[in-house]
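Milestone M4 deliverable, item 7.
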Amino acid sequence: MSIENLPLAAHGLFTCQAFYNIELEPVVYYYYVHLTVQVPISKPNLLVKDVSPVEGSTMWMHCWVENGTGPIQYVWHLETQNGNNTIFTQSNSSFISVTNINRNYTGWYRCVASNPVNNKTSDRLWLDVMFGPDVPQLDVTPYRKTEQGYSVLETETVSLSCQAQSNPASQYVWSYNDSKVTTGRQFTIVKILRMQTGNYTCLAKNSYLNTSSSTTISLTVYYPPDDSISCTLEPALNHTSLRLFCSWPGGFPSPSLRWTGDLIQPAQPLNSTAILLPSEKLTSNNTVFTCLGSHPTIAQLTECSTHTYIPPAEPVCFANATNDKKYLILSCSWNGGAPKALVWWEGPSGQSKGGEEDFNTLILHYGSVQSGKPYICYAKHPLLVQPKTCGFTFGQCSFSPYSVNTLTSNLRYSR
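Output delivered:
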């Protein structure tokens, strides 16, 4: 028996009967044949719940085969966007469900169905996973990172770029201090000014999913000081110390200032605009101190200098009487020097005069002058640990309205 174009209905049990003629009775033999008809697999159709699912959702796939003898094995293949081919999953079921899908599932899918007869592959199907936008990444050129954000120099051209992963691609909106300024991935500010310091926000939007995400950075514009650097020195602590001042007003951030010089000890703060040097550390005369200033907007160091020196001569004491011979005027001077010296008088019984710079005068009534007692002028400069002195000790004398020389001849001058 021959069966052409074997139909599926031919599947089953076939019986062959053989008869033998024997005198007494016929003999019958039976032969059984079980015919299994296997149907080749037809080309599968790949069905997906949603060809544009949202990241994090659940999707299902169905590899539908119209004809084919089971059991049938199913293998799903994924060709990613970068061209890698991998087996996504395999099963003896034509239906699979995938939970919490992510963007890496985007790509071309094929389903291969196979049985003992043959195997067939479906057409490929593009699965496009929708996601985003992610939190935008902002880049600033030129790049200067600070604790608060980013810094740029005034009059520089600044480029801000924004990138947020998204499918479909993000749309970008830029804001400055909450006010919209432009759109697009790139935002360029030509010759930025100090008043453009503030917060810059990039908002990335996914119009398909109606979602958005944003990032804000703080941009600080640095600008140089408007004035010049200046140095000054002055006495301190009653002329027992020297105080150095360095000033460079204006600019942002504030300039960095530090003093240099032979007498500046390493222990002094590097960024001190005012430092105090005690007299015992000031052993050199005519010493130059230099203040160095630096600022991010200025390439070179800026400096100013000042110097201190002791008055070139010695303190001078002299006495004069008034025309009416009622008063004796004791004067003391120590001119010159930087800073100016402090001069003061000390006499007996509280006959003293507090300190003044360069010149000091002590006025005494003739009757109050004490003979044999010293009247000393002290002159103190911060470069000296001990003050210099000059003064008078008066002897017994009488004063007449007409004899100033009598007073002068009885003065003993000491230095």
